[in-house]
Amino acid sequence: MRDFSRDHRWLSINTATVRKQWKLAQIIEACARHDIRAISPWRDQVAECGLDQAARLIRSHNLELSGYCRGGMFPAADAKTRQAALDDNYRAVDEACKLGSSCLVLVVGGLPGALDGKPVYKDIARARNEVHDGIAALLDYARKAKMPLAIEPLHPMYAADRACINTLEHALDVCDALDPNRTGVLGVALDVYHVWWDPKLREQIERAGKDRLLAFHVCDWLPQTKDLLLDRGMMGDGVIDIPRIRGWVENQGYAGYSEVEIFSAANWWTKPGDDVLATCIERHRSSV
Amino acid sequence: MRDFSRDHRWLSINTATVRKQWKLAQIIEACARHDIRAISPWRDQVAECGLDQAARLIRSHNLELSGYCRGGMFPAADAKTRQAALDDNYRAVDEACKLGSSCLVLVVGGLPGALDGKPVYKDIARARNEVHDGIAALLDYARKAKMPLAIEPLHPMYAADRACINTLEHALDVCDALDPNRTGVLGVALDVYHVWWDPKLREQIERAGKDRLLAFHVCDWLPQTKDLLLDRGMMGDGVIDIPRIRGWVENQGYAGYSEVEIFSAANWWTKPGDDVLATCIERHRSSV
What is the pTM of this model? Predict the structure, then answer.
């Protein structure tokens, strides 16, 4: 297992972590200032910056991309909306290529309409079928573009509105169905926040193997979580045994970045961005 | 599948649903008034009423108990606390017998201290081992008392603080390990709120079979859930396809009560108790 205590060579910052403090250009400058070598930006931040300009800034600051957030959201109420979602995913692949990302992270979507409080249907198996078909269609496109797709299983509390793939086992079932030969174009983004509770986590990480482990995200589960979406904790402040999980992942040969992704409306989004990055570095070295 | 639309013969009320409106004696009277045939009371409510008095009231109103809430909370920081938890579980079995309950529901506990915001350790596998050992010890006692134990898998968002058994599959693994001969003394309480998202739900319900399906709880998952504990929805107001799940359960031969268990700080706990019960009846007939 790699020793993270000496430096932060393998730290990546998901740009949502400081999205309330800075725009993307400022985040890139701040990461360079803190000697952070990689980021994972969000599409809306890239769009605001301009794709070409974002690509230039990333290159000129010698940053790598541990992922690009995000494609997915496949299920839809009707065929037209479903096609629009797919077209948007094709664009996400193109953008990921342009930015030089290592993968496109997929948050696959849940019951159509649930995010707005009005689910169009309740049959989650149907949503899962639509996700399967959506990834299948996108995979052909991604394969030609040589852009790996990383399915991110989300915590079951997001099953209705954000992602109906909620366990690593399920994500790997989809990978095995669509890419049985493990070509490298389909795998998972493993975020400890979403999967730490799973009694089958170790077994499924071993099943995944290096081929499927495309990204590793960290933050912490706070024991008294106040909000389902915006109350993620800083590594070390919660209950997740992150080094144990990282050990399992690295035992499979994963040697990429450890990406900090924190949405924290009441805490980390309210602090100065430089303080947040300094804390991410300190906790990366002490608690990951 | 039984037709619930005609009457509410198979409706049970978990007494937490109206705990802010009434004490147990009033709940019992109200249920009788609404022609509700079964309840599932909580230990603190029974203690407040007095165990003998509660047993008398339940008998005199011809109520059945679809469960008794709750035993469990096995993991502890040290041996003394662990033994105290076990002793308390023995008392819970005795109370369940005295009240004539069909089972004692087990919320097994999570990381010791996490409920108070200070987890003593982070090794969830260790907590799961302590749960296994706790249930094993309690099972001997329950077997002699002829009181079935119903492990309730809780939603993964409660893994840290309330229950580290978070899937039906895991609960059934524990059942199979401790009661391989399916003697009827160990099974599960299946609450749709906790398990609806699980892609293996149907398969695991079939694995459970009638022997293991000791209780069936309903409420709904609201698409814009505001609180991790106290924002459960009324059946029909959320995203759970309850009739589908009930169909799977009844296909296995389950013929017991459908128990409504709603914690709702901002909504149902603020309404007159009779209105809540009337709504439970209406939704039991239309949405379960």
Answer: 0.98
